Amino acid sequence: MRRMSIDPARCDGCEECLPSCPFSALSLHDGLMTLTENCRYCRKCIPACQHEAIVYHAQAMDDSAKQVYLGILVVAELDEDGRLTRDTLELVQWAMVLGEARQEPLSLVAMGDKIDPRSIAGLPIKDAFFYEEPCYRAGDPQCEGQAVKEVIEAGQYNVVLFSATAQGKAIAPWVAASLQTGLTADCTELRMRRNGDLIQIRPAFGGEIMARIITPSTRPQMVTVRSRLIAPFEQNSQAHAISDVPRVTWCKSPVRSVWQVMDRHHFSHTVHSHALSSPLLPLSQQLASAKVVVVAGRGLKCQADVARVKAFAHAMGAAFGCTRALVELGWCDRAYQIGLSGLAISAECVVTLGVSGSVQFQAGIAQVRRVIAVNTDPDAPIFKRATHTVPMDVYAFLSSAEALSSAEQAFSME
User: Fold this and answer.
1) Highest-confidence range of 77-91, 130-144, 196-210, by mean pLDDT?
2) Which of 92, 88, 97, 71 is nearest to 219 (CA)?
3) Residue 349's domain is classified under what CATH number?
4) Where residue 18 sits, what CATH number does that domain have?
5) Residue 311 covered by a domain
6) Does the chain have fewer CB atoms within 10 Å around its N or its C terminus?
7) Contact yes or no for 181/220 (Cβ under 8 A)
8) Do 299 and 392 fall within a single domain?
9) What pLDDT, on the 0 to 100 scale, is given for residue 1?
10) Model confidence pTM above 0.90
11) Mean per-residue pLDDT, 52-79
12) What is the mean pLDDT of residues 17-33?
């Protein structure tokens, strides 16, 4: 476990450490500095104390202490109909994989103004906690975080999984700070040791290395997990009755949200509409859910050629994506980027044009069934991943494809 203390024999009450704390967790009491409950263990006060009176204590939990924490909690997200999203079903699949190491039971918590309990029928979960109240419609992270915190404190979970979505990234940091535990964001792979330690794997330094992170001193271990890197848990497609649903606890919100105190219906609607009008969100959602995607790579010669590839994708009824190289050149918006530092997609078919196929890019298409690679370099790594290889110049390929499309359109008009 971890804690901080102030040695009274060294502290002289000089107050030099006060400005260093961003959380106002230091106060002077009877001539000595004391730490309040606001402390978040950032340790910025330690170098500010010239007398070395502030001490940070960190001790890894032994295996016997870790056995007290058992179970994996999935923080669910809901669609407009109150049903579990694909991202949540992916978290359930991750939980299934992790739970095999120690036979960890699975639980789920969901917050929303409308929840369909039948959406969890057929899931391998032991308990579900539903917070169904109007206050959750507005998406107040603190209100939702309080609900998650309440469930965690009652259950002594070993692992808590959030989706690496806007909602998950808003709730998870608040919960982690409140529970004074660690949080690893944007994980691309998870592994469980037999002693319960979660190996949290995520890209670092722009995807150049894969960092392996553990949380040895605190519980629960919390992560946000990127989507489209694992197949979602497959529920029985048959309609389920309420009797098929795992044990459900209907809960009341532990706090009054600011949205309950103030009449924000009109303001909330305005903000929601504005968010939907943002170009980044629809682009990312469209790309992540597309069946066919055309990806442009560094094989393009100039920025103007990006529009040509987009037109080709549009003609195919496909979504457009790009590699990191084109984003760094300023030729494409980051919302189009595919790879470890961009989006992971699970399309049925991807056509790559001038893409070399780095490890980082291939991680973003790991769930793609069919890859058609167009490249003049026979040694390009993408050819090893591709199901269909086209050793051809990108521009020659585009010209032939455009000519074929024009011919097909002319034929259909006759």
Assistant:
1) 77-91
2) 71
3) 3.40.50.1220
4) 3.30.70.20
5) yes
6) C
7) yes
8) yes
9) 56
10) no
11) 87
12) 90
Q: Are residues 209 and 297 in the same domain?
A: no
Residues 6+ apart with CB under 8 A from 67: 196
Task: Give the residue from 13, 40, 58 where a domain finishes.
Answer: 58
Residue 323, phi then psi, degrees to nearest 5: -95, 170
- Among 20, 43, 58, the domain boundary falls at 58
Structural domain containing residue 406: 281-413
Number of separate domains in the chain: 3
Residues 33 and 99 grouped into a single domain: no
- Per-residue confidence band for 53, with pLDDT thresholds at 50, 70 and 90: very high
Residue 384 lies inside a defined structural domain of this protein? yes
